[in-house]
């Protein structure tokens, strides 16, 4: 494997935007507490800049950026702002408590965006580049400027805007591939051209920000770095608008494993990657595809006979990096009803989780209950259980009990008790089948207009006593949320998933109208 040659000029700064671009993607809402947790882990793993939110977007976003700015020990904390004065001021306020704070201001520069989205003439956009960067500099000397849709911007205009941003005081220049349209050679040439043409470009750091619409975001990001960019904007698990952003774990490991062809390095401690992936997957309820690079369940699995034979002879036959290098521990403990707390904690570490003390206690109680009713408790069972524990920690509505009458002698009915902010409410409802009856009972206690867009069940493991993992997607007023629930009882799992989604909708509604704190 390649050795790493460390020199400051080859250091690539990692700018994580999981909490901003990632959270912006449909269904990936995180609560305030979840954002703090993710930020804490990003800081601990050595991310250089945490883009914590878009402060003008809502009071919730503002508070998250503000609180993360207060708590973060090492990383720069960044708030996003459009080019307007109010946006910049709000971002400036939000990052005020940070030891090191950045304002990231942006405006579209491509013909199609300027004409249709902004309905502004290029000269007006040009003036706004100068005014926004100048205003941002009143709050911090760390100002990043982005030309949204940079890869579809005319080169002369792009260079003029970059030059103006630098002159106004921007210290980082980001050229995003907003719509995931570029290809590596073209992106390389773009950075090369801008850096050669724009005066004082050697005084700033250039940044890549790529979306994955054509599946090339990682390759494009690395091409930009080869052309001189030294900041990569990325997200854990590659979450983000549409097809997502560059996956942090992929660019970090690409530069490590193929340091011979990409001789760059980052400050990210790669052994935290698995943990970060699991945390983000749990809080967003966005599953990681099994064959996802670096952090997918199958990324280090070898099933075919030929591969297994090769691995037994020498691991490098089929492994270009070790699972341990990304924080995946070899699973050694077999868990069952006799396993104690110590073994449970050990297993969580093996699986890449780190829980707060109270969550650990709850998870252990649930593990014992599961082990009592299930013959074999597999790693997947524990993962489903812990993911749910993480995702529901701050939920305001929870299932207390559910009894369902199902079978051929309809109508099917559900008797449900919910805990809503500490108050218990019970109701009964009938439906066209037990799931429908359960969801109708939820609707009676928590009236809402949300539309069920997805209801999906899968067995976490083999066997008829397997836990069911249910995914539910709800949408309301163009807001989409996704949640999962796991339980050996499919109907309880269904109720948990539906309520998980409703809890997320509460968070989303509160953002649109900050004083709404009642249940939907
Ligand atoms: O994709 C994009 O252009 C963005 C900008 C705000 C940087 O996310
Ligand atoms: Zn983006």
In DSSP terms (H or I, runs of 4 or more residues), the helix count works out at: 17
Total separate domains: 3
Q: Count the strands?
A: 14
Q: Helicity range of the residues?
A: 40-55%
Please give the CATH architecture of the largest domain.
Answer: Alpha-Beta Barrel
CATH superfamily of the largest domain, by name, is: Aldolase class I
Could you tell me which ligands this complex binds, including any ions or cofactors?
3-methyl-2-oxobutanoic acid, zinc ion
Q: How far apart are the first and last residues' alpha carbons, in Å?
A: 54 Å
Examine the coordinates and then state which fold CATH places here, giving the name of the CATH topology of the largest domain.
Answer: TIM Barrel
Arithmetic mean of pLDDT: 92
Shape: globular
At the first level of CATH, what is the class of the largest domain?
Alpha Beta
Largest sheet: 8 strands, parallel, barrel
Give the neighbour order of strands across the main sheet.
1-2-3-4-5-6-7-8
Model description:
- The protein is an alpha/beta fold.
- It has 3 domains: 2-284, Aldolase class I (TIM Barrel, Alpha-Beta Barrel), CATH 3.20.20.70; 301-390, no CATH class; 395-512, Double Stranded RNA Binding Domain.
- Helix content is 41%, strand content 19%.
- The protein has 17 helices and 14 strands.
- The chain has helices at 18-24, 32-45, 59-71, 85-94, 111-118, 122-136, 155-168, 184-197, 217-226, 248-257, 273-284, 305-313, 341-351, 357-373, 379-392, 434-445, 490-512, and strands spanning 13-16, 49-53, 76-82, 101-108, 143-148, 172-177, 205-210, 231-234, 397-405, 412-420, 423-431, 451-459, 468-476, 479-487.
- The strands form 3 sheets. It has an 8-stranded parallel beta barrel with strand order 1-2-3-4-5-6-7-8, surrounded by 8 helices. The protein has a 3-stranded antiparallel beta sheet with strand order 9-10-11.
- A hairpin with a 2-residue loop joins β10 (412-420) and β11 (423-431).
- α2 runs parallel beside α3, α8 (184-197) runs parallel beside α9 and α16 (434-445) runs parallel beside α17 (490-512).
- It is globular.
- Residues 513-520 have low confidence and may be disordered.
- It binds 3-methyl-2-oxobutanoic acid and zinc ion (ZN).
- Zinc ion is lined by residues 21, 176, 178, 209, 211, 241.
């Amino acid at each position: 494997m390649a050795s790493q040659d460390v020199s400051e000029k080859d250091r690539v700064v990692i700018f994580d935007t999981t909490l901003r671009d990632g959270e912006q993607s449909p269904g990936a809402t995180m609560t305030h507490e979840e954002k703090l947790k993710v930020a804490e882990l990003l800081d601990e793993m050595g991310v250089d800049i945490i883009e914590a939110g878009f402060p003008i977007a809502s009071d919730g976003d503002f508070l998250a950026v503000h609180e993360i700015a207060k708590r973060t020990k090492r990383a720069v904390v960044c708030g996003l702002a459009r080019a307007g004065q109010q946006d910049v001021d709000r971002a400036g306020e939000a990052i005020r408590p940070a030891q090191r704070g950045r304002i990231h201001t942006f405006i579209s520069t491509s013909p199609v965006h300027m004409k249709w989205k902004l309905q502004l003439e290029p000269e007006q956009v040009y003036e706004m580049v100068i005014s926004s960067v100048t205003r941002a500099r009143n709050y911090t000397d760390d100002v990043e400027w982005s030309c949204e849709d940079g890869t579809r911007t005319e080169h002369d205009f792009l260079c003029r805007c970059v030059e103006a941003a630098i002159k106004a005081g921007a210290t980082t220049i980001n050229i995003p591939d907003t719509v995931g349209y570029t290809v590596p050679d073209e992106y390389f040439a773009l950075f090369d051209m801008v850096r050669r043409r724009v005066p004082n470009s050697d005084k700033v750091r250039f940044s890549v920000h790529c979306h994955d619409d054509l599946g090339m975001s990682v390759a494009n990001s690395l091409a930009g770095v080869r052309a001189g960019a030294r900041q990569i904007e990325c997200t854990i698990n590659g979450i983000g608008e549409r097809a997502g952003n560059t996956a942090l774990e992929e660019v970090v490991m690409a530069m490590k494993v193929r340091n011979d062809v990409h001789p760059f390095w980052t400050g990210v401690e790669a052994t935290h990657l698995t943990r970060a992936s699991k945390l983000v997957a749990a809080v967003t309820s966005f599953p990681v595809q099994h064959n996802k690079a670096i952090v997918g369940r199958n990324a280090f699995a070898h099933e075919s006979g030929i591969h297994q034979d090769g691995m037994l002879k020498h691991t490098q036959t089929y492994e270009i990096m070790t699972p341990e290098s990304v924080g995946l521990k070899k699973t050694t403990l077999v868990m069952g009803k006799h396993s104690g707390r110590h073994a449970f904690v050990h297993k969580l570490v093996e699986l890449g989780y780190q829980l707060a003390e109270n969550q650990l206690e709850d998870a252990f109680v649930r593990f014992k209950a599961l082990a009592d009713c299930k013959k074999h408790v597999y790693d997947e069972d524990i993962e489903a259980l812990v993911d749910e524990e993480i995702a529901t920690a701050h939920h305001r509505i929870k299932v207390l009990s559910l009894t369902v009458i199902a079978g051929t002698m309809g109508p099917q009915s559900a008797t449900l008790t919910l805990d809503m902010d500490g108050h218990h409410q019970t109701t009964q409802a009938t439906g066209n089948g037990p799931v429908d009856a359960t969801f109708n009972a939820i609707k009676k206690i928590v009236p809402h207009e949300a539309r069920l867009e997805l209801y999906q069940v899968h067995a976490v493991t083999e066997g008829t006593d397997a836990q069911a993992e249910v995914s539910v997607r709800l949408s309301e007023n163009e807001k989409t949320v996704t949640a999962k629930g796991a339980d050996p009882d499919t109907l309880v799992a269904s109720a948990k998933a539906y309520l998980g989604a409703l809890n997320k909708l509460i968070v989303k509604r509160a953002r649109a109208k900050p004083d709404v704190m009642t249940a939907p």
